[in-house]
Amino acid sequence: MARAPAPLFLRPASYRRRRRRDAARLLPFVGAFLFLLPILWSPQETARRDTGPDGIYLFVTWALLILLAYFLSRALAAPGEGDDPEAEGGAAEDEG
Amino acid sequence: MPFNILVLSCLAYVVFLFLVAWAVERRADRGGLNGRLAFLRSPLVYTLSLSIYCTAWTFYGAVGYAARSGLEFVTIYLGPTLVFVGWWWILRKLVRIGRQQRVTSIADLISSRFGKSNLLGVIVTVMAVVAATPYIALQLQSVTLSFSVFASPTNDGFAPPGAEATAIWVAGGLALFTILFGTRNLDAKEQHHGIVTAIAVEAVVKLLALLAVGIFVVWGLAGGVADVIARIDASRIADWDLQPGRWAGLIFVSAAAVICLPRMFQVMVVENADDRHLLTASWAFPLYLFAMSLFIVPIAVVGLERMPEGANPDMFVLTLPLAEGQGALAMLAFLGGFSSATSMVIVESIALATMVSNHIVMPLWLKVLPQRAVSGDLRRLVIFARRISIAAVLALGYAYYRLSGGSAALAAIGLIAFVGVAQFLPAMVFGIFWRGATRVGAGLGLGAGFVVWMYALFLPSFGPDAVLSARIFAEGPLGISWLRPYALFGVEGMDPLLHALFWSLFVNTAVFLIGSLLTFPGPVERMQGAAFVRVFDMDESGPRGWSRGIAEPEDLLMMAQRILGDDESLVFFEGEAKAQGKAGYLPDPTPEFMARLERRLAGSVGAATAHAMISQLAGRATVTVEDLMAVASESAQIMEYTARLESQQEELTRTARALSEANEKLTQLSVQKDAFLSQISHELRTPMTSIRAFSEILTEGDLPPEMVANYGRIIHDEAKRLTRLLDDLLDLSVLENGTVQLNLELANLSQMLDRALQSAGHTRPERSFMIHRDLPMENIFIRTDADRLVQVFINLISNSRKYCDATAPEMRIAVRQRAGRVIVDFIDNGSGIPKDKQALIFEKFARLTDQTRAGGAGLGLAICREIMANLGGTITYLPGQRGAAFRVTLPLRLERQAMA
């Protein structure tokens, strides 16, 4: 649909808002990387088995991810979120 | 624990859930969940309802899984965690699409995205039912197992029934509960507040139960955290090897399943009340999964240590507290497992039943009896189809349980179902992100993935020689070795689950993409594709599929009433008419209105069926590829300019429509006023003439006394007629000025109707009239001016007696209460009032026919309208009732200050 040419640079408030959304988009990839990490250090053949430490690593990572998601959702729910006058339609272009 | 006490506590628990669901439904019926119960629509309840992801498989099976394969069980919860943490990508879009398109199920989503194709809906429905059957069997099996574990050590001579009997009782009970609450009404947009709340309660119970067992194990049986870690390293779980392929594959498949499982889709998208609930769920649901998984390994380790060799690790959550003599804890654990199984089965069967009724039963019905789209009660049919489907789904689950013998480990069955539903993933994800995805591609991809899944995973799961012979496993069908179920295309030595997951999704995606690249989508498909992919950019504008003015609004209203019910469709039509600047219940059939109506119907019967039903009234959708091209080729500036012009024009059109309606009314009124003036001069002159004539004769004197008396009576009668006419006029002007004195009192509606019927009986007493009343509903007390109200009723009833032209005239008086107002409908079976006259009947001096035999001066309904305005209510004509119908609405309690 038609829209006015998006501004090239954004005001700080809009800029922060878009970075928060970027963070929300990034988070699952961080999580996936951390959850897949045990594959790298636990090749099948190691004689030493360490279910305990592995488990602790996984659960700590998990808790960390939940914590991050919590703070992100707080930030995304902040008042003013959503009525970004410069953001209309400009989902992921250049600066925004 | 004695078996009957166990059954009793289960029953008590179910009754408790039932009461919760019932109370919430009742509140929701009565003007919504506001005030004190607002939390029932909060993100918390939404998150808790998502916990049906954790079925009995989690509750019991996870411990067994951990005992067998160490930390691998945790992948089943890591996948969903990633999906929810990354909600901005997929879930946000899914939920928005679901709300905007009024999606009723995952089959509806896919069918709607690909041009409202019902064939796709059927494919998805069949796949979902097949994949869900073992999963439901799994729940029955776990409840049965827990029953047998719990009930076996009795010595009071009472033998608990066998596993089959338990399973059938459980299946039957669940079917009953689900039917009672899942199909109580055909809700717009398929939401079930009662069930969702009951499930949130169950979510709390199962979490508490598992945490309690975990805490008991870690700090009661073992010596705290450090001790547990030491025991883990000493136990045989420590021998577990992480298999990289399975690890990554299971995280992926569980991530796919959490979006694609019909029950998850139901609670996540269909029952979603507010987009913003996802914000909370994005961290709270992973937290729930985290809490559920935290104590799994400790329970497994301590269980392996303490329980006798050969004990079923799937039941450790229950057997461990039992063996340690913790009866109460075991009972809690039992209820937790019971909750997990029941909530899953309830939601799954509702979701599947919606799919079966919307995509299989309804289209079949419309195909077999096309005329039923415009007549016949569809609501009852849909609800009936759902009930049958719920029972059928549970029966299938039970049959699978019996056939498979209920022996396989819990985790294996769950994973088979996960891989099955993961086949929806390509069609769904590409469908919402890629406008190039087409129906042919989606259909072929789904079909291919389904076939591979069936052949490589589902059928082999019954074991060699059960469905597929052992020879096929060893040599492939017809000796073609590269078609062996566990070694497709010669890939040997892969884990069977991973093998099936890889091949089915690979084939599915490849066929889907190639099919989409090679085929050309139809117009409806392209419209829907644009609406789905650009859901955040497009408000509800965009090209519309229906052409203007073919369908009669009254026909549309009648059809809507069959699906949405009388009240809802009248409210909807009234709102639409108001938005167009029209009064009354019949909006113009503009393309925008038709599209909104279609979406509204889709919320009850699915997009494909709604589309088919409207095309029967409005003709085929008239949008063509050229239309779409024309829209797309216009340059951006023109589009923007047009949009601005359009919005201005729309406003102008609305004003113009209102003005022209007003003008039309004024012209007609002026004509009527002239007619009335001549009418009233005539009415006044006729009695005047005879009064003058007879009084002249009387003044001449010397007449026989009987003639004097006779002439006197004539003069008196004529004078009375004059007075009555003047009284009516006076009454009207008093009412219009608002200077009328109201005599407020409490009065019984039923008695008022009795009085009205009795008085109205004097009008054309030679006609026999059949009256249908609803006495129990009528029995309410209203604070109002009873005499005035009765006057309105008398007027309506005697009008009907005068004008109803049916040979066997009947009248139905329906009374309803809604939101502090009383609604009384008077509906007769005559030919009704023609559409062009409906707007005029409440005006003064309006008369539909020129027959003076009716006797009135055309003031009756005008007086009624003024009376109702004075009583704080309204009187309107109800179209689409197959006869003349009037609706009187008035407040239950009229307050004095409201009278001004």
Structure write-up:
The complex is a heterodimer of chains A (96) and B (900). Chain A is mostly helical and 96 residues long. Helix content of chain A is 58%, strand content 0%. Chain A is built from two helices and no strands. Chain B has a five-stranded mixed β-sheet with strand order 4-6-7-9-8. Chain B has a two-stranded antiparallel sheet with strand order 1-2. With 900 residues, chain B is mainly alpha-helical. In chain B, 66% of the residues lie in helices and 5% in strands. Chain A binds chain B through residues 1-4, 21, 24-25, 27-29, 31-32, 35-36, 38-39, 42-44, 49-52, 54-56, 58-59, 62-63, 65-70, 72-73, 76-77, 89, 91, and chain B through 70-71, 74, 78, 81-89, 229-230, 232-233, 237-244, 247-248, 251, 276, 279-280, 282-283, 286-287, 290, 293-294, 297, 536-538, 636-637, 639-640, 643.
Attribute tags:
heterodimer, A: 96 residues, mainly alpha, 58% helix, 0% strand, elongated, disordered C terminus, B: 900 residues, Hydantoin permease, 5 domains, five-stranded mixed sheet, two-stranded antiparallel sheet, 9 strands
CATH-scheme architecture of the largest domain in chain B: Orthogonal Bundle
Along the chain, the helix and strand elements of chain A come as HH
The fraction of residues assigned to DSSP E strands of chain A is: under 5%
Q: What value does the Rg of chain A take, in angstroms?
A: 20 Å
Shape of chain B: elongated
Q: Report the portion of residues of chain B in β strands.
A: under 5%
Find the structural class of chain A using helix and strand composition: mainly alpha
Amino-to-carboxy terminus distance of chain A: 18 Å
At the fold tier of CATH, the topology name of the largest domain in chain B is Hydantoin permease
Quick check: average pLDDT of chain A? 74
| Number of DSSP helical runs of chain A | 2
